[in-house]
Amino acid sequence: MSKKTPKKNVNRVPATLRREQLVDATLQIMREKGVQSVTLRAVAAEAKASLASVHYCFNNKEELLRSAVEHWLRTMVTDSINLETTSGIRDAVNQMTTSFWEGLRNGPNDLIAQFEVTLWTARESSGIAFAQNIYPMYVEEMSAALARSLEKSGGTCGWSLDRFSRALLCIIDGCGIQYLSDPTSNAQELCLDLVDILLEHADVPKH
User: Fold this and answer.
1) Partner of 185 at 20 to 30 A CA spacing, among 3, 51, 81, 174?
2) Looking at residue 120, which CATH number applies to its domain?
3) What are the tens digits of pLDDT across the range 59-102?
4) Domain range holding 27?
């Protein structure tokens, strides 16, 4: 009597794909309900996966959140700072600022979740080192984009690009919080004015 060949589980999702689905589900919960609403059970439900599969892919909630935030930040930074400008640092900064405000108006929950994640990682003792990597990631990618614009245009900047990028982030984030608090405020106009002041103070030529 011949042995029956075991049936393959055609519904089984590869671990790599399942991890991606769980990360996407985590980000969706963060955007809609906030970081505090992220639980392994909630993520499993959002991804239409079993709780066991979440435990298989991630050791704990902290590891899942870390993976989700790292993926999110890389994607967000790439989308907002993916510049190919030959007009110099002023044009690059204008593109970055425009991209930020378009994204904020179209999806304010993304910025809210970004701030929540930063505060969450800073509050969690186990996440302090991770929190310290969030802004450096922004600064590094922003500095690299600005460096490319300077190289292509032959322009100059009186400040180091690291310092300039950090100052630009201070302006953007601060005005972004004001906008979230009061969308009727002149936060965007103020942001643009402050960026102009920064460019002047950092000795960035107009032409």
Assistant:
1) 81
2) 1.10.357
3) 988 889 888 877 877 776 666 555 666 678 898 898 889 888 98
4) 13-58
Give residue-wise pLDDT tens across range 8-52: 444 578 889 999 999 999 999 988 888 889 999 999 999 999 999
pTM reported for the whole predicted model: 0.74
Q: 80 and 161 in one domain?
A: yes
The verdict on 40 and 132 lying in the same domain is no
Regarding whether 75 and 48 lie in a shared domain, the answer is no
Number of domains in the chain: 2
Same domain as 166, residue 80:
yes
pLDDT in tens, 143-193: 888 888 888 888 899 999 999 999 999 999 999 999 999 999 999 999 999
Q: Is residue 206 part of a domain?
A: no
Please determine, for residue 6, whether its predicted confidence score (pLDDT) is greater than 50: no
